[in-house]
Amino acid sequence: MESSRSIGVKVFAEYYHAAAEAHQEGKPIAYITAFTPVEILRAMGLVCLYPESYAVVCAASGRSTEMIQASGMEAFAQDLCSYSLLSFGAERCDRPPFHGLPPPDLLIATNNQCGTTMLWFRLWAQKKNIPLFIIDYPGAAHDQPALTRYIRRQYEALIEFIQAHTGNPLNPAILGEQVERSKQTCMLWQSVHEVNQARPVRVEVQRLIDALFPIVVARGTRQAYEYYEALLRECSQPVGQDKNHTIRLLWHGYPMWFLPKKFPRCGDTQCQIVLNDYTLWWSLRYPDTADDMEALAVAYSDTYLNRTVPRRVEEVAGLVAAYSIEGVICHANRSCRRALADISPLRQRLHQSSIPSVVIEADMANPQFHSAEQIQLRMESLCDALRVL
Question: Quick one: which H or E segment has residue 247?
């Protein structure tokens, strides 16, 4: 059986190859934000590219500072979303990773994880005269049927928008296949994480971060499903005992993509980050229904950052219990203000359960705001507190 690594290399290569090929052949390309209902777009023959994901690649290349400076956004505060700054910088700098992304024919943005992306895409649309469609996902809605109807009407308008600009109709059969594969793939991704509920850890958090790419850019495809099927098979093998009783930590929020290992070192071999809840944000919950549009409306309205803060806090508290977490590191990410909202109430909730926590102030992709000394001191203080316990 093919290994997850082999499949993952193919997914990565195919993503960038398909974009270059589409540009050469004149196929319609859409830039989309992280939680756009990509299943609809693929069922209408669009090639979808994620500028946020490309920004992660740029940050991981070690060129964040250079590319942010090249963004030409000096008139704006440099604590703008570093994904957007990297994306603008990629258009201006020499030799961007993978030669940059080919230009889009359409822009499709949503607000179910971030408000900045809408402004980012609107600026693109204005500067380059590219058609833009924005999907609004209300947060904290109590009337689920009304919410679903509201989102469905927007999906219908989205289909009309795409057909008007490309001439491509929706293929219901492909849509159904995409939705079912997305559902099954997300369930596999959830299961991959759950093997870490047992001791010792079977999947290093670094491997989970490395395994994130297919669920982000290839959700709904056969390759993504096969990748996580192989990964789950590999991670489900029995392992030895946790003889040294590893102190289990949770990293709350975004990784630091510019770091070689994406997370700072704990400095204490007994402490180990065993879970990053950010990777679980991508485990969307598609309901069991024969109505594909309803399934999409429910799944994409229920993204982590579109939930109420109390619900988010309870969800993380549930992960702390399920994964036997003994300490929590909260990343106060300057680029994502919506992600900052739950840190204070989460720490209060953790304190009630006698779970120590610390806050790391940094950024997901901009090294300018990274202080290794500050991070090391706070990580050491957390480990010291846990050793006392």
Answer: strand 247-252
Name, in order, each residue with C-beta under 8 angstroms of 196's C-beta and a sequence gap of 6 or more.
202, 203, 274, 275, 323
d(C-alpha 83, C-alpha 89), whole Å: 10
Separation CA 85–CA 60 (nearest Å): 15
Do residues 241 and 201 lie in contact, with contact meaning Cβ atoms separated by under 8 Å? no
State how far Cα 361 lies from the chain centre.
20
pLDDT 10s digits, 161-172: 999 999 999 999
Q: Residue range 58-70: average pLDDT?
A: 88
What is the distance between the alpha carbons of residues 78 and 85, in angstroms, rounded to a whole number? 8
Domain 4-169 fold is: Rossmann fold (3.40.50)
Which of 270, 275, 276, 274 is closest to 246 using CA atoms? 270
Coil, strand, or helix at residue 255?
Answer: coil
Query: Who's near 351: CB < 8 A, 6+ residues apart?
Result: 357
Q: What is the mean pLDDT of residues 358-371?
A: 92
pLDDT attached to residue 55: 94
Q: What is the pTM of this model?
A: 0.93
Instruction: Give 3-state DSSP helix, strand, coil % of the chain, rounded to 5.
Output: 55, 10, 35
Count CB neighbours of 44 within 10 A. 21
The count of other CB atoms within 10 Å of the CB of residue 143 is 10
Distance CA 204, CA 190 (A): 15
Please tell me which residue, 293 or 144, carries the higher pLDDT value.
Answer: 293
Instruction: Using the predicted structure, report yes or no on whether residue 73 has a pLDDT greater than 70.
Output: no
How many CB atoms neighbour CB 348 within 10 A? 11
